[in-house]
Amino acid sequence: MAEILVAGETLIDLLPGPGETLRDVDGFSHRPGGAPADVAVGLARLGAAPTFWTRLGSDPFGDFLRETLVAEDLPTGAFERVDGNTTLAVVSPPGVEGRRFRFYGSGDATFGFDPDSVSVAALASASWVHLGGVALTHPDGREAMRELAAEAGERGCTVSFDVNYREDLVPDGEREAVVDAVRAIVADSDVVLASDEDVAATGLSSGEGDREALGRDLLALGPHTAVVTLGEAGAIVASSAAAPWGERTARHDGFAVEAVDATGAGDAFTAGLVARLSEGESRVDTGVDLVDAVAFANATAALSVRKEGGMTALPSRADVESFLGERR
Known about the structure:
Layout: E1 4-7, E2 11-16, E3 28-33, H1 35-45, E4 51-57, H2 60-71, E5 79-82, E6 88-91, E7 101-104, H3 108-111, H4 120-125, E8 128-132, H5 139-154, E9 158-162, H6 175-188, E10 191-195, H7 196-202, H8 212-219, E11 225-229, E12 235-239, E13 248-252, H9 265-281, H10 290-304, H11 317-327
Helix pairs in contact: 1-9, 5-6, 9-10, 10-11
Protein name: Carbohydrate kinase family protein
InterPro entries: PfkB_Carbo_kinase, PfkB_dom, Ribokinase-like
Organism: Halorubrum yunnanense
């Protein structure tokens, strides 16, 4: 198994109770969240527990998150406890139009990574480094993630990057800086994941042609593998001849399931994909089929939407393999 380092935020998801609008909802329940945190826990449940570089606030929510990550058997060596309150991501009730998430808090404690504090020991032992894009909305987070991606590449690590662009977290006047950082990390990455909305919002594609063209547009920016997620419609994948799994262009339509809560489904997909692809890179024959890896990722996402919550709904490896066995 490859040694994986995941970097990015851990925060609180506030999930609404029953009701279509805020007027109907009596209250919210708190759950652990943050895309990189979900990916780290997802990898652990899939049998590939990573080192996780994250920041945890000094408030009771920070205590709760640390306890949660420890309970998932993630090593604590790269956790940082910092002064400040944890960012809250409030999930909108299903009947509310517009943004699905609204973020509350200054973001300094959660996203303000110190570029000089990345664990050198963790990076030295890693063969795969995964970064989340939300930290790029903070000036310190941008610098830290850009430096981490560049350093990981220089050390010969495989670098994967989830764009995960959040316009509402971008401070006034800083959109260009955030998009520039996204493009820089895409160029320094080997595997890039983005939703079709991410691609459109950041201008990573010209927007011309069909969805299958989005993956090829991402490849032109530097990575050898690009995955464009399409929600319940599955995912498009493209890779160049430089990829360990060879040159491919394909689409996997996902799996039809009865969804309870889609929060964190994209993170579950990412965990499944990184788990399968990193397994292949740790083998001498690099015998991973890219389309099979995307099917595994889609199965991981499908199982995650059957339960409420993001991190709490992530499946085990046995669950994913059983699900795939049934669908075959």
